[in-house]
Amino acid sequence: MFFFGFIIFLIGAVVGSFVDALVWRTKERLPIVFARSICTTCHAMISWFDNIPIFSFFILRGRCRSCQTPIAFRYPIVEAIVGVLFVVVGYAHRFSVTPEFIRDAFLATLLVVVFLYDFFYGEILDRFTTIPAIILFFASLVFGWATPQSMGLGIALGAGFFFAQFIVSKGRWIGGGDIRLGAFMGVVLGWPNILSALFFAYTVGALVSIVLLAVKKKKMTDETPFGTYLALGTFATMLYGDRMIAWYLGFLR
Ligand SMILES: [Zn+2]
User: 114 and 148: one domain?
Assistant: First the structure.
C-alpha cells in the first residue's frame, strides 16, 4: 500500500506540474497541448531532465540552468500539493483504481486549477467549471453516481445562492464566475452536500480573514478570492461530505 501510495503521489506531482503550466499558459494565452516547457524569463527550452516534478527544483537549486533566474517556489509546492491530494483521494478510495477514484482525482485536479487561477488572477473561468459540470452530469447518470434530482437540487441551490447575492448586490459582490462555479459544485456534490460545502467555504473564509486582519496582512476593504474557499470546500465535501454533515449536526444537539 505504501508503494501504491508513492506511485499515486508521483502521478499527482506530474499532474501538478501540468496544472501549473495550464494556469500560466491559460493566463498568457499560450498554446497548452504539445507545447514544450520554456523558462519564463530567458525562454530557453527546458530539457526533460530539468523538468522532473519537485526533484529538478532541488537539483537546479531553484534556478534556471541557462539564465540563473530563480524559479518561483510555487512550482515544487503545487507539484507536492497535487501529489498529496492524489494520495488523499487514493486513501478515500482504499487505493483501488475504480472509475470513482479516477473521477475524484480528475475533480481534485480541476479544483486546484480553479483555486490557483482565482488566487493569482482573481477570476473563475468557465472552461474550468461549466464544461466539466456538463460532462460530469452525464457521467454521473451513466455510472449511477447521483440521481438527476440530487444534482438538479444541488445546481439550483449552488447557482441560486450566488445568483441571489448577485441580484441583491447588483453584481458588486459576486461575478458570473461564482454563479457557474456554484452550479458546478451542485453537480459534483448534489443534495445535501452542497450546503455542507458552502458552509465550509464561508467558515474557512471567515477564519482566514480574521487571522489576516489580526496580523494586518489585509484591510477590511480587500477583496477575497472566494473561489479559493469554494474549491477547498468542494474538495473536502466531495470526499468527506457525509461525515461533515454528521459533525455539524453534532453541534446542534
Ligand atoms: Zn532562464
Answer: yes
SS3 content of the chain, % helix, strand, coil (to 5): 70, 0, 30
Q: Give me ligand 1 centre to Cα 64, in Å.
A: 5
Residues 212, 121, single domain; the answer is yes
Ligand 1 center to residue 16 CA distance, Å? 21
| C-alpha 52 – ligand 1 centre gap (Å) | 16
For the record, the C-alpha cell of 83 comes out as 501529489
* All residues with CB under 5 Å from ion ligand 1: 39, 41-42, 64, 66-67
Domain range spanning residue 43?
A: 1-97
CA 82 from chain centre, in angstroms, equals 9
On the CB side of 26, CA atoms within 13 Å amount to: 19
How many domains in the chain?
A: 2
Cα separation, 98 vs 139, in Å, equals 14
What one-character DSSP code corresponds to residue 45?
B
Residue 23 Ramachandran class (φ > 0 left, ψ -120 to 50 alpha, else beta): alpha
Q: What is the model's pTM?
A: 0.90
Per-residue pLDDT tens, the chain, 253 aa: give them: 788 899 999 999 999 999 988 998 898 888 877 667 888 888 888 888 888 888 889 899 999 999 999 988 888 999 999 999 999 999 999 888 899 999 999 999 999 999 999 999 988 998 999 999 999 999 999 999 999 999 999 999 999 999 999 999 887 878 888 999 999 999 999 999 999 999 999 999 889 888 888 887 766 556 668 899 999 999 999 999 888 888 877 877 6
